[in-house]
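DM from R.C. (forwarded with permission)

"hey, sorry to bug you on a friday — could you get me a structure for this? deadline for the figure draft is monday and I only need the backbone to look sensible"
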Amino acid sequence: MIELGEVVRSLAAREGVDAVLLLSGDGLPIEHAAGTAFDSETVAALASTLAQHAARLGQGADRGELATAVLEYGGGLLALSRAGADDWLAVLATADADIGPLLFDLRQHRTALAALL
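My reply, with the result:
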C-alpha cells in the first residue's frame, strides 16, 4: 500500500516543483518534501490562514467550497489544494513550471489522497 510520505515525495520530484507540504486545517505541517530549503511551519501556518479566507471569499461570492487556489508570485507559484475535509496540500513551483498536469492530477486523485489521511 502506498504511504502518504511517498505521495508527497513523488509530487515534490516532479519537474518544476520546489516543495510539497501537507498541512492541517489548523496550520500545522503533517508531511513535506523539498528540493530547496523552506520554512515548513511558517508556510503551513500562512497557507492555512489563506485557505480559510479564500473559503470565505468563495462562500461570499456564491462559488461554493474552495478546492484549489493558485497564486503567482515573482519568484514562483503556490498551488493550494484541498486534501481531505480539513487538510491542504501546498505545492511550491518555479515561475516557469507547467502546473497544468499537476493541477489535473490533484483534482483526479483528491479522494485517494484524502483516504491516506
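R.C.: lifesaver. Strands lie at 17-23, 29-34, 68-73, 76-82, 88-93.
me: no worries. Residues 4-116 form a domain with the Beta-Lactamase fold (CATH 3.30.450.30).
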